[in-house]
Amino acid sequence: MTRSWSSSGLDLHLDLGTTGKRRAGLEAALRAAIQDGRLPAGTLLPSTRGLAQDLGLSRGTVTAAYDQLTEEGFLITRRGAGTTVAGHTSPASESEPPSPDVPRPRHDLRPGRPDLTTFPTSAWLAATRRVLTGARPEVFAAGDPQGRLELRQALADYLGRTRGAVATPDRIVITSGYYQGVRLLSSVLAAAGTTTAAVEDPGHNIFRGAVQRGGITTTPLPVDEQGARVDLIPSNADAVFLTPSHQYPTGVPLHPARRQAVCAWARTTGGVIVEDDYDGEFRYERQPVGALQGMSPDHVVYCGTASKTLGPALRLAWMVLPRHLVPDVVQAKQDADLYTETLSQLVLADLIARHTYDRHIRSARLRYRRRRALLLDRAAAVPGLTTLGVPAGLHALLLLPRNGPTEPEALARCAANGVALRGLSELHHNPQDQPGGLLVGFAAPSEPDYLPALEALLTALHP
Ligand SMILES: Cc1ncc(COP(=O)(O)O)c(C=O)c1O
Question: What separation in angstroms does the CA of 175 have from each of 65, 206, 340, 392?
Fold first, then answer.
């Protein structure tokens, strides 16, 4: 007998050897499993009766083996509590490298992160219970590459109502994050002949990389105080990637005339506009600018995500596509990973349909609005520091005083004060480009951590 399995409640894989000495074989197998760390300290072993049954041994053999290992200090046997593996230092754990000492930032002001302490855990649990209670077995079946119909239906209603998007379930595709959406879309557009896409400069470097990995060459599209310079889309570009409602990272919305202009460009050239509406829900003063997609649904791919409203861990995002792109994007999704995990899609659909999602966003909006106002108020006291962008989103861009610290100096000072944030330079296509600045994510800290984080930031920036 070389290998045996126990299934007496606990599964245990043991190599009993071929010596024929059953007790010695069992002892050696248990000892080896404990020493090399496969049975870590605290592991509850099967009962002697259960293990004997599973291995085809007499109960006395197993009891004797447990007794022997207890005596040797490998096991602990307590009446009524069973037999567990004793604490010891295994060769495996001795040889493990020490874990790298990565200091967590004391003050987390990294942009693009919501306050995760306000994740609606109770609502999520209640919705999960609703989804699973009396669930049809079909809930656990393989998913649809396009995404669960329940979520696509809920999103179609929600996006029409809150973002003015023209959305029907049949033109929505659920992806694992916007990142995957960009990858899929880029590969579909590349296969259809797109070689070049214009992407905002500055813009998010990770998504620019995703377009390139999809097989498309990117060309920088300058951004000014009215948003992307859509008049500069080069003639060889068949697609443009934009953040129209709140340009990332400058925070300016695309000017209405430019919205019209870029839609006209798409209509006349047949080009595709990809609208990243990453934080479109967070507008603090006026009515949110509607989705660009609502103006030209046959030319704009609308992309939304739950990463800012709930949390990036969910990997839930959606695209509303011009109809002609739907089959190829669904095929690309299927080729990539078959479908996005389905239970959380159903939970999100439930929260949207019951308007719990709206309520969660409304309360986050109030909190972030207050935090942004506080940041601007305090920043105004630092001579020469200016803030760019409209009251919206999860971050603000601070432009540094002309005769003050450079961006690397400011970042170093912040780091020394325990403040984690991001520099603007790394989002320029050419990192040497100016201006430099600081992206301050006012949403990231928990409520009690926000003020101390703000104080630490402004102390670091004071001349
Ligand atoms: C500009 C921008 N777009 C979109 C996203 C959302 O990405 P994902 O849905 O992959 O988390 C982010 C998140 O960091 C972002 O910063």
Answer: 53, 17, 6, 25
**CA-nearest residue, atom 4 of ligand 1:** 278
Beta strand segments in 317-442, E: 317-320, 386-388, 395-399, 419-420, 422-423, 437-441
Same domain as 352, residue 256: yes
CA of 158 to the centre of ligand 1 (A): 19
Q: Which residues neighbour 166 within 8 Å (Cβ) at sequence distance 6 or greater?
A: 160, 293, 294, 297, 320
Q: Taking the model in full, what pTM does it have?
A: 0.87
Residue at 243 is within a domain: yes
179 C-alpha to center of ligand 1: Å? 7
In a domain, 412, yes or no: yes
Kindly list the protein residues whose Cβ atom lies closer than 6 A to any atom of ligand 1: 112, 177-179, 204, 243, 248, 276, 278, 305, 307, 312, 317
For residue 433, give every residue at least 6 positions away whose Cβ sits within 8 Å of its Cβ, in sequence order, or none.
Answer: 201, 202, 425
Pair 205, 258 in one domain: yes
How many helices (H) does the chain have, and how many strands (E)? 14, 18
Is residue 331 included in any domain, yes or no?
Answer: yes
Separation of 236 CA from ligand 1 center, angstroms? 27
For 121-177, write each residue's pLDDT tens digit. 999 999 999 999 876 788 899 999 999 999 999 999 999 999 999 999 999 999 999
Distance CA 18, CA 310 (A): 56
